[in-house]
Amino acid sequence: MAEITLENLAHSYLPRPARPEDFALKELNHVWQDGAAYALLGASGCGKSTLLNIISGLLIPSQGRILFDGQDVTTAPTAERNIAQVFQFPVVYDTMTVRDNLAFPLRNRGRPEAYVAERVNQIAAMIGMEHMLDRKARGLTADAKQKISLGRGMVRKDVNALLFDEPLTVIDPHMKWELRTQLKKLHHDFGHTMIYVTHDQTEALTFADKVVVMHDGRVVQIGTPEELFDRPAHTFVGYFIGSPGMNLLPAEVSGREARVPGGVTPLAAFYPALSGKVQLGVRPEHLRLSETEGLSVTIRRIEDVGRHRIVRAELEGHDLNIIAPEDQVIGAGMTRVVLDPARVNIYADDWRVDAA
């Protein structure tokens, strides 16, 4: 395992980048802790695969350095970094059996055959392919081949890091859950440094100790799932995490009050005078329908999703999502909404503002 340090790291695919928007990955400084499990989460094109490929050695960054346990590996080839990488689409040797595909990384490093056989059997059980070990890879389904790729990435215990680039894209939903569980167990048992790229918040939040949220080539927040949900550092995090995401309303903040469309709502803390684009952010879970208090809303529809109901409402022309308990009776007169002051976040130019 290794501690991975990113020092003044940035990358552009242009020969002479001059502006911030020329960079696919904007400047980043961070230390990935030895033995931790990280998820790189963001929409397509946000820079997460670029960052992963720099860590793996498939890309040399335009600027900055990458260090493994303090050793500069910025220009070192992938083979010298002692990592395992699993890509979005399966990479297998079609002429080999499943057994030989899984064994290849170990045999390539001269491990004893008894150890190879034991480890291959363990990994085959983990990915549910014990009964297919003697089948040729050619002719297997795409998800079976991807399971082989995952297994080959996990078969070595001595790697500095395990890197996964959207590895469950072609896997069926039930097997995704199984493999995520197995990856968590692998991390718990062996303590590999793991970095997992995904656009799926469920995958990220269930897999990682810390989630790295990326937007427009920039890391906008690194935190635990709880931190991302309760205190999004950027409006994109609030919008992207959660289903539905955070409600965002234009606001004028003054001390312990915020004026939003439709009226004034109290805040749990005092805020200084703010300039720029000021917004109030509140999760749908932290809104409550009422007949007598709060802001007047128009309810457009109610969606029952089993565990709760999502109330789609409108506040002075702004969409507002409210999560109501499954057993709550929503009467015709419940046309007002109350915001929980303790769970409100304030943003200026998209970045969260701390109370004074």
Question: What does this 3D model show about the protein?
Answer:
The chain is an alpha+beta fold. The protein has two domains: 4-240, P-loop containing nucleotide triphosphate hydrolases (Rossmann fold, 3-Layer(aba) Sandwich); 247-352, OB fold (Dihydrolipoamide Acetyltransferase, E2P), CATH 2.40.50. Helices cover 23% and strands 34% of the residues. The chain has helices spanning 48-56, 98-107, 113-126, 142-154, 173-190, 201-207, 225-230, 235-240; strands spanning 4-11, 25-32, 37-41, 63-68, 71-72, 83-86, 161-165, 194-198, 210-215, 218-223, 247-250, 252-260, 263-271, 278-282, 287-290, 295-296, 298-304, 308-315, 318-325, 336-339, 345-348, 351-352. The strands form six sheets. It has a six-stranded mixed sheet, sandwiched between helices. It has a four-stranded antiparallel sheet with strand order 2-1-4-5, with helices on one face. The chain has a four-stranded antiparallel sheet with strand order 11-14-21-22. Strand 4 (63-68) and strand 5 (71-72) form a beta hairpin. Helix 2 crosses helix 3. It is globular, with a radius of gyration of 24 Å.
Brief overview:
23% of the residues lie in helices and 34% in strands. The protein is of the alpha+beta class.
